[in-house]
Amino acid sequence: MKYITDITNINEGMLEGGFFDGWPNPPSTHTHYRILQNSFRFIAAIDEDTNQVIGFITAISDGVLSAYIPLLEVLPFYKNRGIGSKLVKMMLDELNSLYMIDLLCDAELQPYYEKQGMSKAQGMMKRYYENQHGEL
């Protein structure tokens, strides 16, 4: 397993395989690549045997005070192996010079993120699920 942060080391073919599991309207592989490419920071976990991306985390930020972590995904086959926890730790370390790092998640995932050193907070959101695929 290796972890990378440089988009030049990833191509769209490395992103195939079942990301966005359970999403009713998931992004295409091309859109997924664009998400990584346009993120303030991303970290991808690569299976060195298959050269496939098996997990990733993204952050968007103003680069001054705040960042938001919109996506953490690990392929279903690779879950419960510590990959997601490693990605979160690496991203929090990467962003630790900022004042605030925010993340929204479903209530059942809050204990997971608390184990990663994050705290529960109140928040608001608006979702347009018809745009979940990310293609314009």
CATH superfamily: Gcn5-related N-acetyltransferase (GNAT)
What is the architecture at the second tier of CATH?
3-Layer(aba) Sandwich
Average pLDDT, all residues: 94
- Could you give the distance between the termini? 34 Å
Outline type: globular
- Could you name the ranges where pLDDT drops below 50 across 5 or more consecutive residues? none
Largest sheet: 5 strands, mixed
**H/E element sequence:** EHEEEHEH
Gyration radius, in Å: 15 Å
Beta strand %? 15-25%
CATH class: Alpha Beta
Number of strands: 5
- The portion of residues assigned to helices is 10-25%
Q: How many separate domains? A: 1
Instruction: Describe the strand arrangement of the main beta sheet, using strand numbers.
Output: 1-2-3-4-5
Question: Count of helical segments?
Answer: 3
The name CATH uses for the topology is: Aminopeptidase
The assigned structural class equals: alpha+beta
Enzyme class: transferase
Domain N-acetyltransferase: 1-136
EC number: 2.3.-.-
Protein name: GNAT family N-acetyltransferase
Could you name the key traits of this structure?
single chain; 136 residues; alpha+beta; Aminopeptidase; 3 helices; 5 strands; 21% helix
Task: Give structural notes.
With 136 residues, this protein is of the alpha+beta class. It has a 5-stranded mixed β-sheet with strand order 1-2-3-4-5, sandwiched between helices. The longest helix has 12 residues. The relative contact order is 0.19. GO terms for molecular function: acyltransferase activity. Pfam families: Acetyltransf_1. Keywords: Acyltransferase, Transferase.
